[in-house]
Design a protein that fits this description.
This protein is an alpha+beta fold. It is 39% helix and 23% strand. Strand 1 and strand 2 form a beta hairpin. Helix 4 (127-149) packs across helix 6 (234-255), helix 4 (127-149) packs across helix 15 and helix 10 runs antiparallel to helix 11 (329-364). The structure holds 4-amino-1,4-dioxobutan-2-aminium adenosine-5'-monophosphate and magnesium ion.
């Protein structure tokens, strides 16, 4: 960075001194005598005050008509001002327009999500996307720090693979010099071989799933971090996972409080994320889902949503009434933006009201043996104020590599971690089947081609040990922490089943 420019995040060290900042015009308002322009420079936002008489008339006019997202530098004195965005403001004495912009397509008013995704290359400049990006950065740094500080060795696993780690239906096939290969769904299988060399390892990279679901929790390309540990049992894995997740949340609370506030995250709930988390078996979950307690809980939710619906409808009616009358233009614009928000909120509430009885029925009729569905996970996680481990799933619902519980052959030694407040699964993991014969039987049972798994089976021939690990999805974790409904907001350039925008 040019040393002549001061970054906005360091303005506190420059009060009452003259500095130059450089960035983009984020927003502006003002009159013929004074202009307030907000500059963003990638490190923060700063309001600059341009007073007629303090700068040349020519410059004043140029800045007054400058378009959103024009690039410029501004020189002036820094003053502390609590009311100002970022807590400091700059009283300008000079400025230089670097590249004027006209007709920037994304205005501070609300736009539909489709429009914003088509303009993701520009929307990344918005304050909300910036806050999420900053938090994603912290999450990834905290992930690496946790493993690096706890004796894990980073192992880079391949993206082109010949074997399936998860469901075969969700493999992306690529033409590899005339032969089919897949994009990796998980680094786990390769990582297991590295665990037999290094003991504690992790991999971290993009993973691919051709899942035909358009839910708020699914991307076709997402980032996953996976630790794998030799000589560990289920209890040890759960402890590792709760310490890991707690350390991530603590780091975000420490480094990104203001971004969390801007995004409307539930900071008080995040502060509660400390070990131990809740531990339920799958069988206990089935009992909860089919219980009176769950039925009452869902009925209570329905009532709450109906009240919310009425309140939102009343607010919309009030704003519509104002819009029909005589009001100032700024008030009209503000109302219009608020109406877009409220109408989309109302649509969401209506969907939830519609889904509530369906989800209630699915839960009430849940039978032992099925995998937990998205709505079942949501119910369990809504009924808890901290993350919940769900362990010991039925063998038939889970992947071939999971170790059969020797005390109950119907279940496997696995777990999912459900984030609270209805967010749902952010981690999936298990102890791995370490017995050669049993693993071969599982591979055959699931109709997989045992020949492809020869190298993986070798690990059970040459010094097999109890081992296990898990995978945490970065986008889901960021969405949970930042309170985003859809995980597509939590990766800079999302890839989804129905659309890849840019
Ligand atoms: O539960 P999953 O499928 O587990 C595995 O892949 C194991 N092999 C991991 C392991 O044991 N090493 O995926 C793990 C996590 C999920 O909990 C979720 O957070 C995320 O990866 N995930 C997705 N995130 C976004 N979009 C998708 N389509 C995802 N599928 C899984
Ligand atoms: Mg899973």
């Amino acid at each position: 960075m040019n040393n002549n420019y001061t970054t906005i995040d360091s303005l506190s060290q420059h009060t009452n001194r003259e500095v130059s900042i450089a960035g983009w015009l984020y927003n502006k308002r003002g009159s013929g005598k004074i202009q307030f322009i907000i500059i963003r420079d990638g490190t923060g936002l700063c309001q600059c005050i341009i007073e007629k008489g303090k700068v040349s008339d020519e410059l004043f006019e140029q800045l007054k008509h400058l378009g959103q997202e024009s690039s410029l530098s501004v020189t002036g004195t820094i003053r502390a001002d609590e009311r100002s965005v970022g807590g400091y403001e700059l009283a300008a004495t000079d400025a230089q327009v670097i590249c004027p912009a006209e007709g920037y397509p994304i205005t501070p008013k609300s736009h539909g999500i489709d429009f914003l995704l088509k303009n993701r290359h520009l929307h990344l400049r918005s304050h909300l996307q910036w806050c999420i990006g900053k938090i994603r950065h912290t999450v990834i740094d905290a992930v690496r720090r946790f493993f690096n500080d706890n004796g894990f060795t980073l192992i880079d696993t391949p993206i082109f693979t010949a074997i399936a780690g998860e469901e075969q239906q969700s493999l992306f096939e690529v033409d590899y010099f005339g032969s089919p290969l897949h994009l990796t769904q998980t680094g786990q299988l390769h990582l297991e071989s590295a665990a037999m060399s290094f003991g504690r390892v992790y991999c971290f990279g993009p993973t691919f799933r051709a899942e035909k679901s358009k839910t708020r929790r699914h991307l076709t390309e997402f980032w996953m971090v996976e630790p794998e540990v030799a000589f560990i049992e289920l209890d040890g894995l759960l402890e590792l996972a709760e310490n890991f997740v707690s350390s991530i949340v603590a780091r975000v609370l420490k480094d990104n409080k203001s971004q969390l506030e801007t995004l409307g995250a539930d900071i008080a709930s995040l502060e509660k994320i400390t070990p131990p988390f809740y531990r339920l078996t799958y069988t206990q979950c089935v009992e909860i889902l089919t219980s009176e307690r769950a039925r009452g809980f869902l009925a209570g939710q329905l009532q709450e949503m109906q009240e919310q619906k009425q309140q939102t409808e009343a607010k919309i009616a009030e704003l519509e009434k104002q819009q029909a009358g005589q009001i100032k233009q700024w008030q009209r614009d503000k109302n219009a933006a608020e109406l877009i928000e409220l109408r989309s909120e109302l649509a969401e509430i209506n969907t939830k009201i519609e889904n509530n009885p369906k989800h209630a029925q699915l839960a009430a009729e849940f039978t032992w043996g099925k995998d937990l569905g998205g709505s079942d996970e949501t119910i369990i996680s809504q009924m808890h104020d901290k993350p919940v481990f769900v362990t010991h799933y039925p063998k038939q619902a889970k992947a071939f590599y999971m170790k059969t519980d020797r005390e109950n052959e119907k279940v496997v030694l696995n777990f999912d971690l459900l984030a609270p407040a209805g967010f749902g699964e952010i981690i999936g993991g298990s102890v791995r089947e370490d017995d050669y014969e049993r693993l071969v039987a599982r591979i055959n049972e699931q109709g997989l081609n045992a020949e492809n798994y020869e190298w993986y089976l070798d690990l059970r021939k040459y010094g097999s040990v109890p081992h296990g690990g898990f995978g945490l999805g970065i986008e889901r974790t960021v969405a949970w922490i930042t309170n985003q409904k859809h995980i597509r907001q939590c990766i800079p350039f999302p890839r989804m089943m129905d659309k890849v925008y840019i």
